[in-house]
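Support case: user asked for a sample of complex input and structure output to validate their parser. Sending the pair below.
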Amino acid sequence: MRIHHFALILLFMGAVAQAAPSAQEILAASDAVRNPDKPFSLTNTLTEFRDGKQTDGNTLMIYAKAEKAGGQYQNLIRFVAPARDANKLMLKAGNDLWFYDPSSKASIRISPQQRLLGQAANGDVVTVNLAKDYSAQLLGEEDVTDGDRQTRHCYKLALAATSPDVTYHHIEMWIDTGNSHPVKSRFYTESNRLLKTAYYRHFETQLGVVRPTETVIIDGLDPKWVTVMRFTDYAWRDIPDTWMQRDYLARFKPE
Amino acid sequence: MKKLLFSGLLAALPVLAQAAPPAAQPDEELDALNVADQAPVQVEQAADWRSFVETAYGNTQQRYGLPGYQSGRISIDTALDKTLAPGWRLVFADRLDWNWQGEAPDQAKINTLKELYLSWHVSQEQIVDFGRINTRYGVATGYNPTDYFRDDAVRSIVSVNPSSLRNNRLGSVMLRGQTLWDGGSLTAMLSPKLDSTPSGEPFNVDLGATNHVNRYLLAASQQFSDTFNPQVLLYGEQGKSPQVGLDLTRLLGDATVAFVEWSGGRSASQYAQAFGGPEQDTFRNRVTAGLTYTTENKISLTLEAEYDGAAMDKANWNALPQQGIARYLQYRDSVQAAQDLPTKEALFAYASWQDASVTHLDLTALMRQDLSDQSRLSWAEARYHWEHADLALQWQRYGGKPWSDFGVLPGRTSWQAVATYYF
């Protein structure tokens, strides 16, 4: 009888082990919640607060398409507001980064560090397939308070960059065990300095899937520096591969 | 027995789940989320029009015992990029500068019709444009040898900042066709002669400046990898030998972009172009090479070495004043209109610091040093910006010996306050 019960437990454990997704699968499922699986566009409205007061506002239109090879997103970002930056463009295809100013007609190559100067540095976080650039490890499960102040039971993952080209050296991420919703992330430098904390919230159905429509970013050094990214105007887009190059930037005119 | 099984499972599950106690949320994060709740819900929509009005007032101290003077400017800049029908696009850009100088208002209006053209997207891979088009090539910041349509394009110089010279200039009337493929592009431009001489009339469209000779340009680019994306150009002008251009950029690490911009071909010297003469064309190189480095605290620094093989060497440049002031000025005017260098070698540095200790305060500085006579142009700007307006304070200094590239100019030091409102 004891042997029978022990076998049952082993059987149960086996079933659990088989059903439990790997850390990388958990991360990929969370990516799929944030990122539609076909080319799309959205409007990202960024509002910046310092010491509780609104200090800046930017609006970006983001066109996103996964690369054929590798699956990472390529982004074409159009600046909508403020007025001084209207219609400027940024192309981000891996580390091939170009900035285009319609006033000067100049396409300028910029470095990943230079990209971080602008709000687009936060703006294009929305379309990053983390599972493509990071190796995930399951640290455990825990209850965390989400961006809407609800308690969520989450997987806690440790993500390590698999290539030196990515913006963040390592990331801690909490993902809802029930529905793979991303709940919270902490982004770190190589020296383990906290760069930013992100809360994913205001989940709504967009392009057929329940997705976070707002991300709150809290600066790692100064927690009173808060950036809110609100995603609206989700739409499927036909984005040809020919658009994702420097020489198309002057031609880009969204419908 | 059921109890035993249940307790066994209970014992096993925590191991399987590696469960931890609920993580405490720091109070500061809760505060941040409360702040985030205040974000406005209004979403800005993209507009076809872009316009701004700018006013400037400044003071200049002069050399040669000449009195200082005040100057002012009002500028209206507007641009339209409108989709007329699927596949059809109208692009228009115009700028009016109204300058005055000294106590008696010497009013000078200069209108620059920068662009007016129609674009037809024949397909997703093929585009045809016709009209006045401002086309610009080059990867350098201070001197662009492959910006082949730059000569005579600037009607009104409002700042020595290269970005201002690029923004405020005439396009050329041309027919342009482009074909695109995955990772590459080929563009062909034909720009016909429509007039003979530039015009100084305030509201002239100035086809004599931009279309005084038949010209063509071919530009091809291909992305071979994330880090290698060269552009090759072939430029031709009636009566002159073709010029070949190459634009290369390379990412060095996370924070540095290196660039090389080269143009080469048989041509006359700048001196012969300014005065005419029997000189034989020889193969000449024009090159700019440099890098841009960005620090973690938002400072970008560009350093450039510039070489113009058609310009004067040190000995000839130093001897030029002996030919008389008229010829000296004619040479300078010719080189300035061509946006080339008066002497063979120069260094250029450009630094910008975004949010310089104060949010929304940007500091920018540039320096150009002529290596033939060690004269120097220095320019600096502090600019604070609000949602729709900018306020800037600019300082400029031309330094050097008499008859040097920058030391000869009467205006030694100038200050200027600039206010801009964006609609």
